[in-house]
Design a protein that fits this description.
Length: 178
């Protein structure tokens, strides 16, 4: 089967559309289009060989997953999934009411409060430095799974400590605002 026929077959395949919906969620339309951009950029021989070997469905799923959970190199990830440092335009009016100085002051007060880490550490029978390092790693990465992979610490352990820190932040915030 020729490359163009294979691509047309993929474009009309219901299993592929369902896979894109499952993987992409609300970004499935954009993921579907980007998938075909990637597939069409592959050499004819590669697509024909993969189809002849019977691995076309596995290959398609692999491309979809890599596009969606990309590491920053894929265009789809950079444009649709990567967290942005700026607010969307429809939130610009709300940002005028936001006081960055006050927020930073409260954040620093919470961050440097040794008792803050101490309470969570004491409640969970952990050392202060352990809780502090986990929280700092989480603040930088925003991914408990990545921290678990990088450090070798059990995901449940990280989740327990981070959720306890979030609860403590909420309690501290409520105390400061009331």
């Amino acid at each position: 089967m020729k490359r163009d026929e294979i691509i047309l077959q993929l474009a009309s395949a219901d299993w592929l559309k369902q896979a894109v919906k499952n993987i992409g969620g609300n970004l499935s339309g954009d993921l579907y289009q980007e998938f075909f951009v990637v597939v069409c950029s592959k050499p004819d021989e590669e697509i024909e060989r993969i189809h002849a070997d019977g691995y076309i469905s596995w290959w398609c799923i692999r491309i979809l997953v890599r596009l969606f959970h990309g590491n920053g190199k894929q265009k789809f990830y950079r444009e649709f999934r990567k967290p942005s440092d700026s607010l969307p335009e429809h939130l610009d009016d709300l940002s005028d009411e936001y006081n960055e100085d006050e927020y930073q002051r409260q954040l620093l007060a919470l961050k440097h409060d040794e008792q803050f880490y101490g309470r969570v550490a004491k409640d969970h029978n952990r050392a202060d430095w352990y809780v502090r390092i986990l929280w700092e790693m989480y603040s930088k990465n925003r991914s408990m799974k990545q921290i678990s992979r990088d450090s070798g610490i059990n995901f449940r352990e990280i989740q327990t400590i981070i959720n306890a820190m979030k609860d403590e932040i909420r309690r501290q915030y409520d105390r400061h605002t009331n």
